[in-house]
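Subgroup meeting minutes
Present: P.N., E.W., G.H.
Scribe: E.W.

1. P.N. recapped why we're keeping a running log of single-chain structure predictions: easier to compare across weeks, and new members can see raw inputs and outputs side by side.
2. G.H. added today's entry (259 aa).
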Amino acid sequence: MLTRILTGIVGIVLFAAAIIAPPIVLYAALFLVCTGLLYETYRVMDAKWQLQIVGILAEIIMFGLFAVGRIGMALYGAIFLFMTAMVFFWKKSNSKETLPLGMVTIFITSAVLSLVMLRANFNIFALLLPFIIAWATDTGAYFTGYFLGKHKLAPEMSPKKTIEGAIGGIIIAMIATVVYGLILYGNFYVYGMIKYAIVGGLGSIVAQVGDLVASCIKRDFGKKDYGTLLPGHGGLMDRFDSVLFAAPYVFFMIVYFGI
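Output recorded in log:
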C-alpha cells in the first residue's frame, strides 16, 4: 500500500507539472505516454515486432499531422499505413492480427490526442475533467466494492469488480463533477448542478466501460497486468484505461452541450 501511495504522489506531481507547462511540453509528455500505452498493449496482445514498429510509426504520423491541424489526414495516414503493412507482412502476420492492432493503435492515439484538444481548444480545467471523472470512479468503485460489494459485475472479465462498486463509482463521480463545477463557477443554478451530475454519471459509465475493455483484452491474451512501470499500480494502461474513454466523451460533451 505504501508503494502504491508513493507512486500515486509522484504521478500527481509529474501530472501537475505537465499540465501547467507550455503546450509543447504537454504535447511531448502525452506523446511519451501514448507510446508507453501502445507498447504495453502490443506486449499484452503478443504483437510481432514488425507490427509494433508500424504502430509506433502510425502514432508519429497522427501526432505530426495533428500538430499542423490535419486531423482527417492523421486518421487516414494511420489507416493507410496499417493497410499497407497487411500486404507487406502478410506471410508473417495476417489481417486477423494486423487489423485489430491497427484499430487499437488508432483508438489509443486518438484518445490521447483528445486530451491535447481539450487543452488547446479550451483550458486546463477542461483537460482535468476526464481525469477527475475517471479517478473518482475508480476510487468510488474500489471502496464501495470493498465494503459493500456482493454481486459480481463481470466475473470472467474482471473478477474483483462488483455491481455495488460500479454504482458507488457512478455516485462518487457525480459528486466529484458537481463539486468541480462549483469550484470553477461558484454558485450556479440547480440546473447547472443537475447538468454536471449527469455529465459525471454518464462519464463514469463510459470510464467503467473503458476499464472493462482493457480487462477483456488482458483476459483474452492470458495476462494479469499491462506492465510494471508504476509500482503498486501495474502499467500505464492499468491507470489510463478509463481516461482513454472519458477524454473523448468530455470533449464531445463540451463541444455539443457546452458544459
